[in-house]
Amino acid sequence: MQVSVETTQGLGRRVTITIAADSIETAVKSELVNVAKKVRIDGFRKGKVPMNIVAQRYGASVRQDVLGDLMSRNFVDAIIKEKINPAGAPNYVPGEYKVGEDFTYSVSLKSIRKLN
């Protein structure tokens, strides 16, 4: 995970985060295994559906869920690492995602200054 922080006007901050492609693929494969254990498809016993069929049917939605989860978790890790105190809800701006490539997104937020 790569993080860069820009200061926008006033108390605004823009945090740009890049998630490595291998960590995305690992999380997607792990989630597809969990889905395969629970999914019921005609012609297969529960938990015995081949992974290529699970990936074909549920791959896009699983990938979207995993990306949303990774965005949230990496944002929290980034603000802790950069010691940013957010005020209010962050605004996520996802970038273009292509399978097998790193995913970059930015989050705009207002931060609270520390008073001494």
UniProtKB/TrEMBL annotation:
Xref: Gene3D superfamilies: Trigger factor ribosome-binding domain
EC number: 5.2.1.8
Record keywords, A-Z: Isomerase
Domain Trigger factor ribosome-binding bacterial: from-to ranges: 1-109
InterPro entries: Trig_fac, Trigger_fac_ribosome-bd_bac, Trigger_fac_ribosome-bd_sf
GO molecular function terms noted in the UniProt entry: peptidyl-prolyl cis-trans isomerase activity; protein folding chaperone; ribosome binding
UniProt GO BP: 'de novo' cotranslational protein folding; protein transport; protein unfolding
Keyword Cytoplasm (UniProt): no
PANTHER family cross-referenced by the UniProt entry: TRIGGER FACTOR CHAPERONE AND PEPTIDYL-PROLYL CIS/TRANS ISOMERASE, TRIGGER FACTOR-LIKE PROTEIN TIG, CHLOROPLASTIC
Protein name, as recorded: Trigger factor
Upper classification of the organism: Bacteria, Pseudomonadati, Pseudomonadota, Gammaproteobacteria, Enterobacterales
